[in-house]
C-alpha cells in the first residue's frame, strides 16, 4: 500500500521553487522536472564532480546522460548561484544500527570471545591507519623536498648567472615555466580525473563526520589524486601547504582499511566484514582524520581534539583511546621513516611535516603586561581572517558561475602559478633588504644573493624563494634585525592576496601553512614596531614570539578552530609555556571574526549547499514543531507488500526516498496505518536482488536464508533499482518485510519542538525520524534536510529553499 505523497524530495521540489528562485535559476528548470535539473549543471558546480558511468546517483535516480553535442548546446557560460538553496543530492549516513531480526540473531550467536576479537580488530585497524597515514606523509614530504630542491637550485643558478651578465627575464621565465608545469600536472589530474580531491578536503571530511554522505570523498582514486596533486601544488610554488590534505588522506585510508576490501580495485580480502556499515566506518574515519593531523603537525593530542571538535557525534572513552592510538602510531611512523631517510636511524626528532623548530627558554618568556598585546594581535588576526574569508567567498562564487569547465580551471591554476612566480621575482628584484650570511639561521635555506654585496643575501628571498614551512621557521627563529619593516609589510600584503586567490583553485592544497606564514610575517612586523612606541624598548627584543602569536591569530581568524588549534600549536612549538597566550589569541580571533563572517571551511560548506547540522538548533526556533518541519505525506509500505508496488515506488525518479515506514493497515480504513517499523531503500534493493518473496519461500525453490553478510557485501555501493530485473509474474508476488525492517525506529510526537527534534536527530546521528500522532499513526518523516533548512539569518529565523542543484 502506498500513500500518495510528495515525501521528502517531492515536497522539496514544490516548496523550494518559489517564483523568485525559479526566475534566478531558469537554467536549472527544476519546476518542470526535478531530475532534469542535473542535465543543465556542468561538472564543477559541486564537490561531487561528475558521476561515474553506469553508477546511479546517491538518491537512486539514474544519472542524466547527454552527448557532447548536447553539452556544447546546453552548457551555459554562467551558472547562477543562490546561497539560499539547500541541495537535495546529499544524503545522510545511517549512523543508527538497524536492529532487525537478522541483527539480533547475529548478536545472540556471538559469544563473549567474539566481541573481544572485534575489539582487538578495532585496535589493529587503528594501528594500520596510523602506519599507512604516516607513510603517506613521509612520501609527500620527501617527494616535495626533492622536487622543490631541484627547482630552486635550477632557478638559483640561473639568477646568479644572469645577475652578472644581464638577462634576468630569462630567470623569471624559467621560474614561471617550472611553477606552471608542476601546477598544470596537479590541476589536470584533479579537474579531469577526480574533482573531489580539490582543496584541502577538510570541509568534506567535516561534512562526513557530521553525517553527510559526500559522493566519492573516501575513494582510493581520490586518495591517489590527492597525494599527487598536493605534491605538484607545493612543488609548483603556490601559496599552499601540504598539511591540510593530510587530514583528507588519513580519512580515506581509514575508510578503506576498515572495510577489508577495495571496491575501486574490486578486491575483497574477506576481513573486517563486521565493520561494513556506516556506524563503524564513520568512527574509523574520525581516527583517520586525527592521524592526518598528527602526521601533519606532530600533534597526536591535537588530532584527537580535531576529530572531537569537528563533528564526531558519538564519543566515548574507548573511541578516544583508539583515535589517540592511531595518532601516536602515525607520528611515530613518520618520525621513524624520516630518521632512516636522513641517515639518523632511531633519532625521532621530526615530529610532523611542519616543524616550527624549538623555542629556547629565553625566547619563550613573556610578561603579564604582554597579554593585552597578544589579545590585540588576536583581534587583528580576526579582522584579517574575516577579510580573507569575505574575499575568498566572492571569488568562489565567481568560480562557480564562470570557471566551471575543467580546461578553464587548469588554465586558472597555471595563471596563478605564473603570477605567483612573477610577483615573487619582482619582490626579490626590487628589494634592497640585504643581510649578512652569518645571520641566516638555517643552512638548508636556498639563499639568494641577488644584487646584494658579496657575503650578503636577500632577506626577501628567504621569505619568497623557499618552501612555506621553511619561511615560517625563519620568521619564528631568525634573530632581531634579520628583516626590515618594509620587507615584512610588502610580503604580508602580497602573500595575503596570493593565498586568498589560490585557495579554491582546482588543485589539492591546504590553507594552514599560508595562514601561518601571513600571520608570522605581520606578527614579526608587530614585534619589530613595539620598541619604537614603547617606553622601555629593551623589553621587546625578541620579535619571534610575536611572529608565533601572529601566526596563531591569522590561522584562528581564517579557520575559527579554538580547542584543537591551541593544542596543535602548543605541540608543534614543543613548549607549553605559550599555551595561555595562544588560547587567548585564538579565542579573540574567533570572536572578532565571527562578528563579520563564518570560518573559511563553513563558508565553503554553505557555498556547496550541504545540509550541515551544527551542534544546536537555531536559537529562536522553539516556536516550530515537528508537524511544521516534517515532510508529508509519506510513502509507506505494508508489512507484507506486493513486489510490483515496491518496484514502482523505488523506480519513481521524481521521489527518491531512502527510508519507508512500515505500517499495519486496519481493514477497510482510509486513515494512515499504525507504525510497526522502518525499512531502507538499500535493504529493499538487496531483497529484490535475492528474490526474497513469500511465494518462493513456500515453494520448492526455497533458497538459503538471507543473512546480514548479504547486506554487508552490497555495502556501500548498492546497485540501482534499474539494474534489477523483476518479471511480470514476480511483480504479482508478495514480500514479507517483518524480518528485515527495523521494528523500533525512533519516533516523536507531532507537537515536539524543533530544538528537541534537532537534539535527538543530531546526537544519535539519525537519518530518518518518524513523526506520529497519539494513535501511533505515521503523519510525517523528518530528515536531515528538513532540519538544515532553518538557520538564523540577519532578519531572524530563515528557511532555505530546496532544489536539485
UniProtKB/TrEMBL annotation:
Keyword Phosphoprotein: no
Organism: Pygocentrus nattereri (Red-bellied piranha)
Family the UniProt entry places it in: Belongs to the chloride channel (TC 2.A.49) family.
Molecular-function annotations in GO: chloride channel activity; chloride:proton antiporter activity
Main location: membrane
Pfam families reported in the protein's UniProt record: CBS (PF00571), Voltage_CLC (PF00654)
Taxonomic lineage from the root: Eukaryota, Metazoa, Chordata, Craniata, Vertebrata
CBS domain location: 741-799
Subcellular location(s) per record: Membrane
Claim: Lipid biosynthesis is one of the keywords in the record: no
Membrane-crossing residue ranges in chain numbering: 120-144, 165-193, 223-241, 284-307, 319-341, 371-394, 414-431, 485-505, 511-534, 546-570, 576-597
Domain of life, source organism: Eukaryota
Cellular component GO terms, alphabetical: lysosomal membrane
Keywords for this protein: CBS domain, Chloride, Ion transport, Membrane, Repeat, Transmembrane, Transmembrane helix, Transport
Name listed for the protein in its UniProt record: Chloride channel protein
Membrane-related topology note: Multi-pass membrane protein
Amino acid at each position: 500500500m502506498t500513500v500518495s505523497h510528495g515525501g521528502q524530495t517531492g515536497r522539496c521540489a514544490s516548496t523550494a521553487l518559489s517564483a523568485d528562485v525559479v526566475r534566478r535559476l531558469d537554467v536549472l528548470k527544476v519546476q518542470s522536472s526535478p531530475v532534469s535539473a542535473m542535465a543543465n549543471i556542468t561538472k564543477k558546480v559541486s564537490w561531487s564532480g561528475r558521476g561515474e558511468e553506469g553508477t546511479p546517483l546517491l538518491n537512486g535516480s539514474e544519472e542524466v546522460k547527454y552527448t557532447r553535442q548536447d553539452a556544447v548546446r546546453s552548457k551555459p557560460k554562467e551558472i547562477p548561484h543562490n546561497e539560499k538553496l539547500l541541495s537535495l543530492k546529499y544524503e545522510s549516513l545511517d549512523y543508527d544500527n538497524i536492529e532487525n531480526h537478522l541483527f539480533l540473531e547475529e548478536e545472540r550467536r556471538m559469544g563473549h570471545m567474539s566481541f573481544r576479537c572485534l575489539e582487538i580488530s578495532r585496535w589493529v585497524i587503528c594501528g594500520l591507519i596510523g602506519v599507512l597515514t604516516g607513510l603517506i606523509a613521509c612520501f609527500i614530504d620527501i617527494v616535495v623536498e626533492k622536487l622543490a630542491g631541484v627547482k630552486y637550485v635550477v632557478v638559483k643558478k640561473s639568477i646568479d648567472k644572469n645577475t652578472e651578465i644581464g638577462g634576468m627575464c630569462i630567470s623569471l621565465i624559467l621560474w614561471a615555466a617550472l611553477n606552471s608545469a608542476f601546477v598544470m600536472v596537479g590541476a589536470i589530474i584533479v579537474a579531469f580525473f577526480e574533482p573531489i580531491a580539490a582543496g584541502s578536503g577538510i570541509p568534506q571530511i567535516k561534512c562526513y563526520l557530521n553525517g553527510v554522505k559526500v559522493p566519492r570523498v573516501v575513494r582510493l582514486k581520490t586518495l591517489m589524486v590527492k597525494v599527487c596533486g598536493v605534491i605538484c601544488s607545493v612543488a609548483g610554488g603556490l601559496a599552499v601547504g601540504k598539511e591540510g590534505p593530510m587530514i583528507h588522506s588519513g580519512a580515506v585510508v581509514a575508510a578503506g582499511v576498515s572495510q577489508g576490501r577495495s571496491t575501486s580495485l574490486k578486491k575483497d580480502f574477506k576481513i573486517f566484514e563486521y565493520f561494513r556499515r556506516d556506524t563503524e566506518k564513520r568512527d574509523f574515519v574520525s581516527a583517520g582524520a586525527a592521524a592526518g593531523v598528527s602526521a601533519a603537525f606532530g600533534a597526536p593530542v591535537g588530532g584527537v581534539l580535531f576529530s572531537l571538535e569537528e563533528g564526531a557525534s558519538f564519543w566515548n572513552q574507548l573511541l578516544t583511546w583508539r583515535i589517540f592510538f592511531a595518532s601516536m602510531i602515525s607520528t611515530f611512523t613518520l618520525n621513524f621513516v624520516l630518521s632512516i631517510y636522513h641517515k639518523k636511524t632511531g633519532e625521532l626528532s621530526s615530529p610532523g611535516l611542519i616543524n616550527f623548530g624549538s623555542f629556547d627558554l629565553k625566547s619563550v618568556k613573556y610578561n603579564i603586561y604582554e597579554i593585552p598585546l597578544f589579545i590585540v594581535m588576536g583581534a587583528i588576526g580576526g579582522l584579517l581572517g574575516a577579510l580573507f574569508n569575505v574575499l575568498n567567498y566572492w571569488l568562489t562564487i565567481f568560480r562557480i558561475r564562470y570557471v566551471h569547465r575543467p580546461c578553464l580551471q587548469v588554465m586558472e591554476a597555471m595563471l596563478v602559478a605564473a603570477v605567483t612566480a612573477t610577483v615573487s621575482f619582482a619582490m626579490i628584484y626590487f628589494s634592497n633588504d640585504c643581510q649578512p650570511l652569518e645571520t641566516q639561521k638555517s643552512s638548508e635555506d636556498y639563499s639568494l644573493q641577488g644584487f646584494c654585496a658579496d657575503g650578503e643575501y636577500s632577506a626577501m628571498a628567504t621569505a619568497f624563494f623557499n618552501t612555506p614551512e621553511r619561511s615560517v621557521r625563519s620568521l619564528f627563529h631568525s634573530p632581531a634585525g634579520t628583516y626590515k619593516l618594509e620587507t615584512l609589510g610588502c610580503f604580508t600584503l602580497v602573500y595575503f592576496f596570493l593565498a586568498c586567490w589560490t585557495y579554491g583553485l582546482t588543485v589539492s592544497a591546504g590553507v594552514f601553512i599560508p595562514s601561518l606564514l601571513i600571520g608570522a610575517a605581520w606578527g614579526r612586523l608587530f614585534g619589530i614596531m613595539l620598541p619604537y612606541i614603547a617606553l622601555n624598548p629593551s623589553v621587546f627584543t625578541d620579535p619571534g614570539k610575536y611572529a608565533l602569536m601572529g601566526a596563531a591569530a591569522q590561522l584562528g581568524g581564517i579557520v575559527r578552530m579554538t580547542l584543537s588549534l591551541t593544542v596543535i600549536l602548543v605541540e608543534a612549538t614543543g613548549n607549553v609555556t605559550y599555551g595561555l597566550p595562544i588560547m587567548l589569541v585564538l579565542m579573540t580571533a574567533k570572536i572578532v571574526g565571527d562578528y563579520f563572517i563564518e570560518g573559511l571551511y563553513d563558508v565553503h560548506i554553505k557555498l556547496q549547499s550541504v545540509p550541515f547540522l551544527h551542534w544546536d538548533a537555531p536559537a529562536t526556533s522553539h516556536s516550530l514543531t515537528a508537524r511544521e518541519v516534517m515532510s508529508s505525506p509519506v510513502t509507506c509500505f505494508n508489512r507484507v507488500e506486493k513486489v510490483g508496488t515496491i518496484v514502482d515506488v523505488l523506480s519513481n525518479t521524481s521521489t527518491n526516498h531512502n527510508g519507508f515506514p512500515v505500517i499495519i493497515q486496519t481493514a477497510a480504513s482510509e486513515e494512515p496505518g499504525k507504525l510497526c517499523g522502518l525499512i531502507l531503500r538499500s535493504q529493499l534493493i538487496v531483497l529484490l536482488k535475492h528474490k526474497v518473496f513469500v511465494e518462493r519461500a513456500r515453494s520448492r525453490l526455497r533458497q538459503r536464508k538471507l543473512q546480514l553478510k548479504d547486506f554487508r557485501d552490497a555495502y556501500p555501493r548498492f546497485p540501482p533499482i534499474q539494474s534489477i530485473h523483476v518479471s511480470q509474474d514476480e511483480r504479482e508476488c508478495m514480500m514479507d518485510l517483518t524480518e528485515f525492517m527495523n521494528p523500533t525506529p525512533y519516533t516523536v510526537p507531532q507537537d515536539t519542538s524543533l530544538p528537541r527534534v534537532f537534539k535527538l536527530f543530531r546526537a544519535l546521528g539519525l537519518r530518518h525520524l518518524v513523526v506520529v500522532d497519539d494513535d501511533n499513526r505515521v503523519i510525517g518523516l523528518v530528515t536531515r534536510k528538513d532540519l538544515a533548512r532553518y538557520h538564523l539569518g540577519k532578519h531572524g529565523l530563515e528557511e532555505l529553499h530546496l532544489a536539485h542543484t
